[in-house]
Amino acid sequence: MSCPRSSFRDAALIEPFAIGGHCTARANIQGGETVRVLGSGTIGAVILQTLKVKGCRVMCADINPSSLERARGYGADAIVNTKEQDLKQAVQEFTNGAGVDVIFDSACYPAPSPPCWRWASPPMGPPSCPWASAPPGGASPRP
């Protein structure tokens, strides 16, 4: 099997970059928003990079120290190891109590997700998690 005009290494990044771009477009990210990305693996890192290009302030949360250090290297404004830090408190400190404008969940671990939705700023409406796990009743992109 061959991959025309690109290496397999480069071709392997097509899907994560497509997902990251699609998520931020579907969430109507315009820039200037304060965003939390839960999960800093490959797709979370791509979402982070897309958000930074669009001019957002971004907090990344994960349990893997190496993923968090990579996120810091990609421009995360704040990183939180949720095994060692309280995520709610970290969000409140990062936003001066206002909460984040948008939440992306690239961890897709269902247990922590529902409580996390409550830590967004009130005008956000339904959580903007257009492709990953969602709270009961589903999620919808911002208008």
Notes on the protein architecture:
The N and C termini lie far apart (42 Å). 36% of the residues lie in helices and 13% in strands. It has a 4-stranded parallel β-sheet with strand order 3-2-1-4, sandwiched between helices. The protein contains 6 helices and 4 strands. The longest helix is centred in the first third of the chain and has 13 residues, at 14-26. It has helices at residues 8-11, 14-26, 42-53, 65-73, 87-94, 113-117, and strands spanning 34-38, 57-62, 78-81, 102-105. It is globular. It is α/β, with parallel strands linked by helices and 143 residues long. Residues 121-143 have low confidence and may be disordered. Helix 2 (14-26) packs across helix 3. Helix 3 (42-53) links the parallel strand 1 and strand 2.
Task: Describe the secondary-structure layout.
Blueprint lengths: L7 H4 L2 H13 L7 E5 L3 H12 L3 E6 L2 H9 L4 E4 L5 H8 L7 E4 L7 H5 L26
Parallel strand pairs: 1-2, 1-4, 2-3
Brief write-up:
The chain is α/β, with parallel strands linked by helices. It is about 35% helix and about 15% strand. The longest helix is centred in the N-terminal third of the chain and has 13 residues, at about 15-25.
Task: Write a concise keyword list for the protein shown above.
4-stranded parallel β-sheet, alpha/beta, disordered C terminus, 13% strand
